[in-house]
Amino acid sequence: MLDTLLEGDVCQPAAQLHSLDRPTTSAGFPTHLLIVGVRRDRQVGVLSSMDGNCKESNVVSVGNLELGQGPVYYSLNGEGNDFPLSSEIPIGKVREAVKEFVASGGMRPTCIEWGDAGTW
Questions:
Q1: What is the mean pLDDT of residues 30-45?
Q2: Which pTM value belongs to this model?
Q3: Are 75 and 14 in contact (CB under 8 A)?
Q4: Do the beta carbons of residue 80 and residue 18 sit within 8 Å?
């Protein structure tokens, strides 16, 4: 999936993931979500996790301010999503986190640091 995003026509594409192994709401919607964004030009990406079963339900990846170089913007289904400047992490860590998400049945990855997704 990440290779497809990296090779696509969109400069900074993002995708939403959820696991069919996790329960859904009574209306059939997922109770969790992982947003994955990638930037091929700098080989970095962002992650955002929403999970009603976690203490901090909305969080973003925590990276290094030195990796951020101007607005951190990713396109999800043609709509822009802004992220904190310090949320970009190396693409290798993005891959590791996505693999952990899939292998764990949709649990929030623990291989990266998460921070508050509040207002930035």
A1: 91
A2: 0.87
A3: yes
A4: no
